[in-house]
Each structure stands twice: as structure tokens, then as C-alpha cells.
């Protein structure tokens, strides 16, 4: 599925061409030689001219980094199948110019698993070649102001695993619960203005047309929840918000306010809808060596949620609005001999459940993550354990990364889910245990 529109593609091509032309036309740059002035005499060897300027050859390289990868992923429980079998690439543009800073990230994956498993023709056509423009933005600093325009990932919350106060950036749900962490977030099309004060900063965002969480089409292996497709982008009301972040003594606190829409689609019958609603949030973290305490609280009045009415035994979806509260509390703890730990808990009240009625009880999520490095940091191991709806659904993820050398990296990940048989969201994925293997080669152009 191609998710790069023509305008963004041409922007990246023009940017790369201009940088290449600039490098080709400028064979060398002259800069003052401080040592020559300080010594009182001027050298005439090793490229030092008689006017006190040193000639330094310009490195003929582009501000681009490229990563190529062999991607394999297999569902090892029943039904066994390939979910990834192909090659991928990541292109990063990292360019500092006099006119500002330009950053871009594009990924592509040729995934032959859909052909191997004889998936529906529409899935093969739409997902075999999957290209995403994750970020492409321009940023410029003006004294104590900074302006960003384009597609950018903006993270306002403090949580690592269970975010509460991150209303801006959409996520990629095409791999359900089995996505690698670096693949989850997607950029948002926005204008961002940052204003820096002595002990605080104020961030403003304006989103003319929001991008929503990426869903998959009906017939995809991870079409679990709705069975309905979503185009992720539609005409909708604009979104906006601000964050005022305070730097305190070994602590940070922030106030967030704005109007943002739900990032997952809601349905009135068969009609898909995204509704803009107010969000007010507070975040706080404090360093208490060797730990970091973090908290988030969000109040969302008139928050839309999915519920169902029934005509006989047939569920009919509709959208209900009510005030919603979300709370996250967690701790990061770094040990000398036992690695780094992250523990977070999340509750929401009230909840919308699949039965079409308000649960009336606080339920939530818990997450625990451990990571450590070995072999002079060449080998990294990690483990994540998460629970959904108290302990009814449990996800275990084990990962290992081995840095072979400066360019080559080997990554493996195993994910296993134990689900409540009566849960319509998680039960279909209970036998989707998955093993990933990736071989990556990175280099600069």
C-alpha cells in the first residue's frame, strides 16, 4: 500500500537534489586558521594558504542514511503462517541548512507473505509493497522561538508503555499487538510553535487535517476488531492544542489543553466517524536516584466512545459521549547489576464495553519492562509483560538485539498472548504467537 502522496514525494526529491547540487558545486570551503594567527607567522604547507585561511576539502556526501533489512516473521501457533517474508528499507534525511533544519523518514517493505499464504487478491495488491512517509518536516529557530511545519512525531506525555497524554501522534495498528516499538508511531501533519522561557517552554500545535491510526482492510491477517476498512485521512474539523512545560528542581510538570479527535474510527451503523472533543491533561515526573517517578492525568469531557444496541441478536454500533478520566502512574528504575526496569499502571473511568453498557468499575492496564546489555553493549536483551482489562489478557514479548559491527545488526522478537475467550478483541489473537527475525545493514550516503 502506497501511503506517500505525490506532493510529499516531490518535496523529498527536490530537497535531495538541491543538496547534491550544493555539494558538487562546492569543491572546497575556506575557514579561518586560528593557530596561524596566534603563532604570528603563516604556514605554507599542508593546505594552509598565505592569507591565514586553511582550505578544507568538502566531503562529497548527502545528508542521508539508509537501512536495508531482511524481514521474516512467522505465526508459530495455530494457524501457522508467514506474516512477513521479504526485504525492507528505511531512508532518513537529516539536513541542517542556513534556511533551517529538514528531517524526513520513509520506510518501505516488500512482503511476499501474502502471496505465500494465498491471501485475498485485494490484500496482496494493497500490502505486498508497503511504503510509508513517517516524517518530513522543516524546523527553524528564531531566538527563543522554534517553528516546525510538516509531518512530525510529537510526544507530550511521560509514559513509555501506557500513554495517557499523547493526543497528537497516530499509531500503526497494521501489526496489531506484535509491532516492533520503533514501528508503532506515525507522524502527524501539523504546524508547531515552541516558545522557550527561563524555566519553562510553551508548545502550540495546529493540525489542519488530522491523520488517524492506521487500520487494515477486511481480509488482512490482523483484521481483528472491526472488519471494516479505514482510509485514515478524511475531511474533518481542525485540531489544536498547547502544552506548558515547567522545569522544576529535579522534576518536570506540564499542563496540556486542546481539542483533538479520536484516532481510532467510531461507527454509527456502517458510517465511520472521527469526533473532535476537548482534552485537559497534567503530566509530572521527578528524579529520585536511581529512579524516575512519572504520572499522567487526563480529563476528557464529552469523549466519544463505541457502544452497541441490539436488534434481536444483531449488534448495531452507535457513538455515545460521556466524561472520561484516565490516570497513569509509573516508575523507571535503573540498577547496576540487574538492568533497567519500567513499571506502569493505567486506569480509565468510565469504560465502554462490547456489551453496550457502562461498566461502572475501574479497570485498566499494567506493564512491566526489563532491559540490559551484555558483551560490551553489543548484545541487548529485553522483556515486556502487559495485561489488558485487569489480568484477563496477558502479553509477553521477549527481544534480543546483537550489534555485529558498525553496520550490521541482528534482531529477534517473540510475542505470545493469553486471552480471555469471551473478549471479542483479544480472543481471536490468542493463537497468534509470533517469532520475528530481522537482519539490518545501515550506512550513510
Word description of this protein:
The protein contains four helices and 22 strands. The two termini are 26 Å apart. It has helices spanning 6-25, 34-39, 113-116, 121-127, and strands at 28-32, 53-57, 64-75, 81-97, 100-111, 129-142, 145-152, 188-196, 200-207, 239-248, 251-261, 266-268, 271-273, 276-288, 291-311, 314-334, 340-349, 363-374, 379-388, 393-403, 408-418, 434-444. By secondary structure, it is mainly β. 8% of the residues lie in helices and 53% in strands. The chain has a domain at 6-40 and 57-320: Porin (Beta Barrel), CATH 2.40.160.
Essential attributes:
22 strands; 445 residues; 8% helix; mainly beta; 18-stranded antiparallel beta barrel; Porin; globular; two-stranded antiparallel sheet
**Largest sheet entry:** 18 strands, antiparallel, barrel
Rg (C-alpha, Å):
25 Å
Query: CATH first level of the domain at 6-40 and 57-320: which class?
Result: Mainly Beta
The amount of helix comes to under 10%
Overall geometric form = globular
Q: Helical segment tally?
A: 4
- Measure the end-to-end span: 26 Å
Give the structural class: mainly beta
Q: Strand fraction band?
A: over 45%
CATH architecture of the domain at 6-40 and 57-320: Beta Barrel
Q: Assign the CATH topology of the domain at 6-40 and 57-320.
A: Porin
Provide the succession of SSEs.
HEHEEEEHHEEEEEEEEEEEEEEEEE
Mean pLDDT: 84
Number of strands: 22
Q: Catalogue the unreliable spans.
A: 1-60, 226-233, 353-362
Amino acid at each position: 500500500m502506497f501511503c506517500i502522496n505525490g506532493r510529499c514525494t516531490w518535496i523529498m526529491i527536490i530537497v535531495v537534489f538541491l543538496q547534491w547540487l550544493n555539494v558538487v558545486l562546492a569543491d572546497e570551503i575556506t575557514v579561518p586558521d586560528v593557530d596561524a594567527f596566534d603563532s604570528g607567522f603563516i604556514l605554507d604547507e599542508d593546505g594552509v594558504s598565505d592569507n591565514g585561511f586553511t582550505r578544507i576539502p568538502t566531503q562529497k556526501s548527502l545528508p542521508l542514511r539508509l537501512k536495508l533489512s531482511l524481514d521474516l516473521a512467522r505465526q508459530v501457533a495455530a494457524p501457522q503462517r508467514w506474516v512477513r517474508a521479504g526485504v525492507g528499507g528505511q531512508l532518513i534525511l537529516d539536513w541542517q541548512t542556513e534556511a533551517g533544519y529538514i528531517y524526513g523518514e520513509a520506510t518501505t517493505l516488500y512482503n511476499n507473505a501474502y502471496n505465500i499464504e494465498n491471501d485475498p487478491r485485494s490484500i496482496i495488491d494493497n500490502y505486498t509493497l508497503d511504503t510509508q512517509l513517517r516524517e518530513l518536516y522543516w524546523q527553524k529557530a528564531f531566538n527563543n522561538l522554534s517553528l516546525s511545519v510538516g509531518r512530525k512525531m510529537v510526544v507530550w506525555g511521560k509514559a513509555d508503555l501506557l500513554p495517557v497524554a499523547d493526543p497528537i501522534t497516530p499509531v500503526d495498528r497494521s501489526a496489531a499487538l506484535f509491532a516492533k516499538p520503533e514501528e508503532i508511531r506515525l507522524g502527524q501533519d501539523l504546524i508547531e510553535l515552541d516558545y522557550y522561557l527561563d524555566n519553562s517552554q510553551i508548545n502550540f500545535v495546529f493540525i489542519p487535517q488530522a491523520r488517524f491510526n492506521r487500520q487494515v482492510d477486511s481480509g488482512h491477517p490482523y483484521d481483528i476488531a472491526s472488519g471494516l476498512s479505514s482510509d485514515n485521512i478524511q475531511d474533518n474539523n481542525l485540531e489544536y492544542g498547547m502544552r506548558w512545560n515547567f522545569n522544576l528542581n529535579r522534576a518536570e510538570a506540564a499542563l496540556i489543553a486542546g481539542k483533538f479527535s479520536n484516532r481510532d474510527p467510531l461507527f454509527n451503523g456502517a458510517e465511520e466517524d472521527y469526533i473532535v472533543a476537548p482534552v485537559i491533561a497534567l503530566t509530572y515526573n521527578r528524579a529520585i536516584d536511581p529512579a524516575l517517578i512519572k504520572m499522567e492525568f487526563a480529563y476528557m469531557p464529552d469523549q466519544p466512545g463505541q457502544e452497541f444496541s441490539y436488534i434481536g441478536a444483531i449488534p448495531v454500533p452507535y457513538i455515545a459521549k460521556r466524561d472520561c478520566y484516565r490516570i497513569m502512574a509509573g516508575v523507571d528504575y535503573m540498577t547496576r547489576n540487574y538492568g533497567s526496569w519500567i513499571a506502569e499502571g493505567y486506569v480509565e473511568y468510565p469504560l465502554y464495553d462490547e456489551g453496550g453498557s457502562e461498566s461502572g468499575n475501574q479497570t485498566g492496564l499494567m506493564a512491566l519492562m526489563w532491559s540490559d546489555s551484555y558483551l560490551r553493549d553489543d548484545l541487548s536483551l529485553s522483556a515486556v509483560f502487559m495485561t489488558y482489562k485487569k489480568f484477563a489478557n496477558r502479553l509477553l514479548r521477549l527481544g534480543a538485539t546483537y550489534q555485529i559491527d558498525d553496520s550490521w545488526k541482528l534482531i529477534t522478537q517473540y510475542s505470545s498472548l493469553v486471552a480471555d475467550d469471551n473478549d471479542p478483541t483479544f480472543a481471536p489473537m490468542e493463537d497468534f504467537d509470533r517469532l520475528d527475525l530481522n537482519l539490518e545493514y545501515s550506512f550513510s550516503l
